[in-house]
Write a structure and sequence with these properties.
This protein is an alpha/beta fold. It contains 10 helices and 9 strands. The strands form 2 sheets. It has a 7-stranded mixed sheet with strand order 5-4-3-6-7-9-8, with helices on both faces. Strands 1-2 form a two-stranded antiparallel sheet. Helix 2 (32-39) packs across helix 3 and helix 3 (47-59) packs antiparallel against helix 9. The chain is globular and about 45 Å long. 41% of the residues are buried.
Length: 281
């Protein structure tokens, strides 16, 4: 056992840990990226995250199904847009990626495709750089709450050319922005920085499909120090306002059903997660 400067013993560092993990562990609270990693069956999480996940599952037993549906939707949209000729993907709020990685799905369909993962959590970036494999991806630390700064960081990075069409993925992120942070304004500012014929794909927990469950989930997140805000269909549709939204907003498990994409039996009460794609004129 090693000791901190103040003297108390601490567990030895796990082989995969970085100094960032020491900070996270010392905070003694769940962190969204690690929590979602556990809900999806990953191993990059701590006991505090697993305890929070257990509490969330107790409140909403189908939560892991909802999170997994969002991941499946992301890969399906990536395949669809790659088929339309899009080869640049900007994934915001990546968290700690799990296989099958988004960029691997994209690269399997377009060898020259580029994926730029973005997250404001240095731990997510550290793990992403350590675990991800392939040539067509990069990881960038930036905060969506500063859309101008995020776009400037993307330009400086150079992995994505914002003068050409980009697929902007904002999945599992807007739910964690409060109204006072003006999430609709943030999305619009990001779209204003993209080239014509770019695409926006969003997912968002629904407040109106299963209102009682949504309220319970909000309280469960709050108990672990995480702000969570489901939104109504009208509120989520506003993120796609002004875009060619094709078939419009649906739920993640119902988007573009096809081989291997049949809707989950039981309806939207099992997967109350809105999802939609729009093209920038």
């Amino acid at each position: 056992m090693s000791r901190t400067p103040d003297g108390p013993a601490r567990p030895p560092r796990m082989p995969s840990e970085s100094p960032v993990d020491d900070v996270a562990r010392s905070q003694g609270r769940a962190q969204t990226a690690r929590l979602y990693n556990h809900l999806l069956g990953g191993k990059t999480n701590y006991q505090v995250d697993r305890e929070a996940a257990a509490s969330l599952r107790e409140a909403c037993p189908d939560l892991s199904l909802t999170v997994a549906a969002g991941q499946t939707y992301a890969r399906a949209v990536a395949g669809h847009l790659t088929g339309l000729g899009v080869w640049q993907f900007l994934d915001l709020g990546t968290g700690i990626p799990l296989r099958p990685y988004l960029h691997e799905t994209i690269e399997s369909l377009a060898d020259d495709a580029r994926t730029l993962y973005v997250d404001n959590d240095p731990m997510a970036e550290a793990y992403g750089q350590s675990f991800l494999t392939g040539n067509g991806f990069h990881f960038l630390e930036a905060d969506v709450r500063d859309p101008g700064g995020l776009l400037a960081a993307v330009r400086r990075h150079g992995g994505i050319d914002l003068e050409r069409p980009v697929a902007l993925f904002i999945h599992g992120l807007l739910d964690f922005l409060a109204d006072e942070e003006e999430p609709h304004g943030i999305v619009q500012a990001l779209l204003d920085g993209l080239a014509p014929d770019s695409y926006l794909s969003v997912t968002h927990h629904a407040a109106d499909l299963t209102p009682d469950r949504a309220a319970v989930l909000v309280r469960a997140y709050q108990e672990h120090g995480i702000r969570f805000q489901p939104r109504t269909r009208d509120q989520v549709e506003r993120f796609l306002s002004g875009l060619d939204a094709g078939t419009g907003l649906t739920t993640a498990h119902r988007w573009a059903p096809g081989p291997g994409r049949a809707p989950i039996p039981g309806g939207d009460d099992l997967v109350p997660l809105y999802a939609g794609v729009g093209r920038l004129p």
